[in-house]
């Protein structure tokens, strides 16, 4: 059988169908700025009482770079990211200092001048969607929950939950590796693991084009790990969807050892690699939500539906 036909029979959704039948149908264009700009997303979440990484500085113009190192002196570590970036590009994680230098998550050393230059690149739109001028956010560096300590390399894993009409339909954990430079980005070499929607237990794992059970850097099993506070994550994902007025979104979380679940960002065009990580197609789950949407107005009903309908098969 032709590969396209096999994928279709498995319910695997391609980018054209995602755009035509879900992104364009359920996401109003005037709501996109709420998720395309991480600063707007952060402020929206804060207004709703949702936990996000604390914001230290916003750099909007070149003049604000002057004196930035003195203003950041009170913070032993922090994260720099473009407000309008995508795919993890432009994010720099500072984990410590060495005199007047900064130490990145990978262990590499960054000079003050190099950080200034990176901020300038962010402002000039090097990492933004469409190359438009951007602004830089400097915020709290998440301290990963201990559950991920043995299955991640240096950086902080994140959890992506795809939501349709307030119903969580599929999830994955992205685990940093040496190849990804400590970033939880699949395109840069992070591991993607599927997640059982009923229990929060990690399922199959994919690294690049390889299905695996162990982390290539730590040697520890990446499957069968239960994500803490799973029910809370599902509720937060559903609420975030309601908050933005977007019907089809990807919600990215981190689990901080002190603050628990924190919303990292939202995506109005969630990628499709989550299907590879779960070794399952999105389309049947999305169609199920559409079919039963009339009975899923209540938040608890949506969560219960997701856990019951999209649970991993028992062996």
Can you offer a commentary on this structure?
- The protein has 2 domains: 3-50 and 144-309, D-amino Acid Aminotransferase, Chain A, domain 1, CATH 3.30.470.20; 55-139, Dna Ligase, domain 1, CATH 3.30.1490.
- The model has no long low-confidence stretch (mean pLDDT 89).
- The strands form 2 sheets. The chain has a 7-stranded antiparallel sheet with strand order 11-10-9-8-7-12-13. The chain has a 6-stranded antiparallel sheet with strand order 1-6-2-3-4-5, with helices on one face.
- The chain is globular and about 55 Å long.
- With 315 residues, it is α+β, with helices and mostly antiparallel strands.
- It has helices spanning 3-9, 15-26, 33-36, 38-47, 68-71, 112-123, 230-244, 274-278, 283-292, 299-309; strands at 55-59, 78-82, 92-98, 101-104, 109-110, 136-139, 158-164, 167-175, 191-195, 202-207, 210-212, 248-256, 260-267.
Question: Concise description?
Answer:
By secondary structure, this protein is α+β, with helices and mostly antiparallel strands. The chain is 29% helix and 23% strand.
What descriptive keywords fit this protein?
single chain; alpha+beta; D-amino Acid Aminotransferase, Chain A, domain 1; Dna Ligase, domain 1; 2 domains; seven-stranded antiparallel sheet; six-stranded antiparallel sheet; globular
